Request: fold
Amino acid sequence: MKTKTIIYWIATILLSIIFLYSAQMYVFNTEMIKGFFEQLNYPTYIVWPLAILKILGVIMILWRKSKWLTEWAYAGFFFDLVLASAAHLDAGHGVGLSVYAIPILFVSYFLGNQLRSNS
Reply:
């Protein structure tokens, strides 16, 4: 049980770091990110809402006071990662960090649920 808890926290912290890094890029390098969004044929007006939602999602995943909001945060992160991966592959950028973050998200989500159901 101790090993699963450690793996869960490593995955959850890695996932949090990935999304906080992404959010800070959106906030502090907005024009550069808007350029990337234009290249990927995404609307640029979603840069700020995505940054805010990524920060709120990390808070909900770490806080875990509301099961419903935590589920929505994981779902939002999953869709964000899948869509980012598809957009980068479609643009010919190859595999990016978003593809590697998907298994980390699964480990965090499923191990977290398993640990909470056992306690």
About this structure: The two ends are 10 Å apart (CA to CA).
